[in-house]
Amino acid sequence: MITIPYLTALTTYFSYGLLFAFGQFRDFFRKIFDWWQASNLQGYAPICLGLEDFYIRRLYLRIQDCFGRPIASAPDAWFDVVERYSNDYNKTLKRTEKKSRCLNLGSYNYLGFAAADEYCTPRVIDSLNRFSASTCSTRVDGGTTTLHKELEECVANFVGKPSAVVFGMGYVTNSAILPVVIGKGGLIISDSLNHNSIVNGARGSGATIRVFQHNTPSHLEKVLREQIAEGQPRTHRPWKKIIVVVEGIYSMEGELCKLPEIVAICKKYKAYVYLDEAHSIGAVGKTGRGVCELLGVDTADVDIMMGTFTKSFGSCGGYIAGSNELIQYLKYTCPAHLYATSISPPAAQQIISSIKVILGEDGSSRGAQKLARIRENSNFLRSELQKMGFEVLGDNDSPVMPIMLYNPAKIPAFSRECLKQNVAVVTVAFPATPLLLARARICISASHTKEDLLKALEVISQVGDLVGIKYFPAEPKKQLQPGKETIKLE
Amino acid sequence: MYVRAEPTTDLNKNTEWFTYPGVWSSYILIVFFSWLIVLSLLGTSPGTAWTIVHLSHFFVTYHFFHWKKGTPFADDQGIYNGLTWWEQIDNGRQLTRNRKFLTVVPLVLYLIASHTTDYRNPVLFLNTLAVVVLVVAKFPNMHKVRIFGINADH
Questions:
Q1: Which residues pair with A99 in a beta bridge?
Q2: What is the number of CB-based contacts under 8 A between chain A and chain B?
Q3: What pathway is it annotated to (chain A) (predicted)?
Q4: Residues A281, A282, A288, A294: is their CA dihedral positive or negative?
Q5: Range of the domain at B135
Q6: Which among A278, A281, A245, A240 is positioned nearest to A262, based on CA atoms?
């Protein structure tokens, strides 16, 4: 639950109103100005209506330098950020040759596999030499190598399901699977803060979509009861199928899903559960098996488990794990399997090797160390930031840590000031988050050392004071008097 | 001092900001401060300032709530392109709290403007016209109605 100071809410609405008003004025004058100039596209329809890209042109482009910064090295704990400059107030940005070494608080590098790893990288280079960089074919034509078979078995084993199918891209996994498993006459009930790929897949399926309040199992039950009683929209016939879509860790809140209650409700009303573990697979749980292990839910109760390899495994692609019949069905109907190029062999080898490291099958205990380190790092940073007075969202043990900013002007201020002190953070605003709730999202990695975290704390605290985002009162610091053993509270 | 922001179930990013706390107060405060600014910049009587605020409020809200259609971003692939903002809020449900509030504001402004100008004639006519147009546009029966095809889709 996000707690906003009332005055901040008022000033945020006022700021957005002002930005909107200025944008409208500029559009108005631009229209008058362009009316005088003749256009050489007479008779052609416009590519986009003038309204559709209002947000991009008048709000996003003004702070464009805070997004999409190019990097020039692997996204490890420290990386090189390319500096850019603009001559026309951020409408176009030009790259320079200069790079600055920054602390990486934005990459999804939960277990530290994003940079060269002593076990994974030699094997990946080996597979590159053996299989080359691309399979140049779809899975059904000539793109299934022994690596793909091994990968699917490995993933099914890791997740705890009978079998799995792997795709080349994580976004496509959601948007190509949902239309295949449900169609017109079915009902999709999805959490209100689900990722865009799920929303796209649900819209593409043609099923009716209903939304329940984020992470509120009681509201899910209410929506289920209402929909089952009413049936399909006009005919009131019973629904052909009901799927409830939730995520393991919500990437913008850092919260864990209330999976046990939701699974219990779905069992009661005979709805299928689709769990998107993009951020939680490999990062939470005692052996890294995701949110089911952490919350003690039997994987046989979750019907379709989806995940991506981009976050904890340092690779690319997505998977779906389920029963043998389901995966068999997906393999002959899903367009991402039939028509899209299969996952690149070095990427597949990276996933196999990283799963082996996590499970300890490479002979060392590095996997368990990484899991312990990411848990300690996240808990340490979260508690320290909260003590300083920042509003940090997310549950304990979650490596995703959004710091609330709210006002639109604080977004570029925070981002630019942190970059000046060599800390790279990712800021997220409307429309990825609700209008009022802009935030800076920090992703902790197992490769962050204690010194890195202390530096991050120092920089964020300084910038936070400058920008004014310590919305909660800071906890009083305890000070030890030199020579005495007493603790004095300030 | 602090308010809780509960996540809404509204998928339309163009209208879901209206369900968060603080919107009603911001709206009222913006109208009040614009009256103060008009009063200080133009130096007219308070009544004329209220009339100016009322009429400019009419133009601005009519243009943005009942004339402009669609959303200012392309993420939703144009599913709301035929609907004005008023038709989009609260998912198209009528007579919700937000809609009732937005109907009351122009009425209250009209009462203040006509009272402070002592119901004198030319100004009273303009004010009445403004409030009648705005309130009729907000009736539930006017949902998706386009009179004489004005502002209908291409």
A1: A82
A2: 103
A3: Lipid metabolism; sphingolipid metabolism; Sphingolipid metabolism
A4: negative
A5: 44-149
A6: A245
CA of A460 vs chain B CAs: smallest distance (Å): 23
pTM, two decimal places: 0.87
Under 8 Å CB-to-CB from B122, ≥6 apart: which residues?
none
What are the tens digits of pLDDT across the range B70-100? 888 877 777 888 888 999 888 888 888 999 9
How far apart are the two ends of chain A, measured CA to CA in Å?
30
Tokens 């790092």 found at: A377
Interface confidence: ipTM more than 0.85: yes
| All CATH 3.40.640.10 domain ranges in chain A, comma separated | 119-359
Residue ranges of chain B with per-residue pLDDT less than 70: 154
Show Cβ contacts of residue A458 under 8 Å, excluding neighbours closer than 6 positions. none
Give the DSSP H/E element, type plus range, for residue A280: none
Nearest-CA residue of chain B relative to A437? Answer: B5
CA geometry: angle B27, B32, B33, nearest 5 deg: 100
Torsion over CA of B57, B63, B64 and B70, rounded to 10 degrees? 170
Report the C-alpha dihedral over residues A92, A96, A98, A104, rounded to 10 degrees: 30
Which amino acid, residue A364?
S
Out of A54, A193, A199, the one facing B72 most closely (by C-beta) is: A54
Contact (Cβ atoms closer than 8 angstroms) between residue B137 and residue B62: yes
Number of domains in chain B: 1
Name every chain B residue with its beta carbon within 8 A of the beta carbon of A56: 73-74
Is residue B51 domain-resident?
yes
Instruction: Judge whether B63 lies within some domain.
Output: yes
Q: Which two tokens stand for residue A212?
A: 């329940």
Per CATH, the number for A119-359 is: 3.40.640.10
Task: Give the architecture (CATH level 2) of A65-104+369-467.
Answer: Alpha-Beta Complex (3.90)
Chain B residues touching A203 at Cβ < 8 A: 77
Give the whole-angstrom CA distance, residue A242 versus residue A246.
13
Cα distance from B61 to chain A (closest Cα, Å)? 12
Please report whether residue B26 resides in a domain.
no
Closest chain B residue to A50, measured at CA: B72
A21: amino acid identity, one letter: A
Distance from CA of A407 to the nearest CA of B (A): 14
Please report, as a single letter, which amino acid is at residue A204. G
d(CA A406, CA B35) in angstroms, rounded, equals 27
Tens of pLDDT, residues A423-449: 999 999 887 888 888 999 999 999 999
